[in-house]
Amino acid sequence: MIYPKRNANIELIIFDLDNTLYDTIEPFEKMVQSCSLTFSDKINTVFKQYSVFSEIAFQAVQRKEMPLEQSYSYRFRLLLEHYHVPYNMDTLKHMQSQYRYFQTHITLSDTMKNIFTLLKQANKQMAILTNGPTYGQNIKLEALNIEVYIPKKYWFISEQLGYAKPDKHVFHTVLNTFDRLPEHTLMIGDSYHHDIAPALALNMQTCWFNKDLHKNKLSTYTVTNEQTLFSMIQNIFS
Question: What is the pTM of this model?
Fold first, then answer.
């Protein structure tokens, strides 16, 4: 696949974390297996439903309606009740314990390593912009060994910032830190609502990591897997 060069003068690349740098379903699936849970749907469908409940819990935390620690068990409780799976408090605690464990053992794929290496060799500035709790997101970034490519001072996490994507303030914070113009910045992420739409509204270039093959949405670039992302990056920066 050939990708036209929309703007060769990209100076800053911003990466989302969850479901962009690693596949978020993997630690979830391992947790389900470890806890011997049985659901009536396939794991992909169960995870999509969990993601809905996770977003509900995250928004409740953002509105200060729920403590962060409570939100973890809350999203699992909603999931189990949705599928009519019996549970008690020990079940919820075990699920969260196992999920945290597997989230701290995620790894960066060889393709993603090649992408970061190529950008580093091209002397491009890079940053992470992610929604979530500071401690939890830092743990995942450390597990992925992202500091090899991007210094910790350029890991922008919503809890730390006081704003969350899609709020324009978080994007402005990154741009101001690097003193870069939006049109010379590329945002790479999987969520159209949180990553792509707000970046486009600020006149940033975007790469939508469209793993679910949604249609009829605008993005400067659209890729569906890590290999097509690597091909796009090669075309722009090699």
Answer: 0.90
Largest CA distance in the chain: 55
* Tokens 């060889």 -> residue: 110
* Other Cβ atoms closer than 10 A to 214: 10
Nearest to residue 236, comparing CAs of 13, 43, 81?
A: 13
Question: Where is 53: in which H helix or E strand?
Answer: helix 43-62
pLDDT tens digits for range 185-201: 999 999 999 999 999 99
Judged by phi (left if over 0) then psi (alpha if -120 to 50, else beta), residue 227 lies in alpha
CATH class name, domain 12-23+107-237: alpha beta
Cα distance between residue 148 and residue 114, in whole Å: 12
Query: Would you tell me how many other CB atoms lie within 10 Å of the CB of residue 110?
Result: 10
